[in-house]
Amino acid sequence: MREASDAVEDIGWRYLLGELRTTVVVESLARGTEAALAAVTACGPDADRHLRLDLRAERVVLVLQNTESAQVTDVDTALAARVTQALAASGFTTDPEVGTPSARSLQLVEIAVDALDIPAVRPFWKALFAYIDEPERDGPTDALVDPLRQGPAIWFQQMDAPRPQRNRIHFDLCVPHDEARRRIAAGIEAGGRVTYDAEAPAFWVLADPEGNEVCITTWQGRQPD
């Protein structure tokens, strides 16, 4: 994780939950299409197995990940450099929008479901959302993902005892590692509070004024440096 993050940070990409992501701000859908085409062309034959994109009139979000393993590989970090170089040649900039006046930085949302018997509840969520197993992660307690990669992933947190008094569904919001503290400060200023930070910077738990929880997560702190 650290190696992948370090490889792309200076060229405007960020590592988030097993993906490399960046934003390209554009002034029209036509320019966004140009940026998207430049990215696809730069990836060449690897585009279909590594590149995803979200094209809007104001920005293009680019995602690199090996779709067969749902992980970032050396190919993805190399592609990030090639895409950034190709976009720069066409007048575009790859930017995670961290600490900028934009509406928000890059981010990913997950839904976490607390459960006593994960194998018993997982099929319900899989069927209801029409989700699938991640590649090579099809165990009875593994996370579920949207096959179109549009909705948030759903993962399951093991409970050791019933907690009827506590909200048992919470959101996980993955942000760039250099955005987390700014986002936490914004949540506190808006009336929230930090309820757990012993495992930061992997994650912080924040609660709203009524106790509903959100985890702010980053890639950091999840493996030895």
TrEMBL record:
SUPFAM superfamilies, sorted: Glyoxalase/Bleomycin resistance protein/Dihydroxybiphenyl dioxygenase
Annotated Pfam families: Glyoxalase_6
Organism encoding this protein: Catenulispora yoronensis
Boundaries of every Glyoxalase-like domain copy: 111-217
Cross-referenced InterPro entries: Glyas_Bleomycin-R_OHBP_Dase, Glyoxalase_6
UniProt-recorded name of the protein: VOC family protein
Lineage of origin: Bacteria, Bacillati, Actinomycetota, Actinomycetes, Catenulisporales
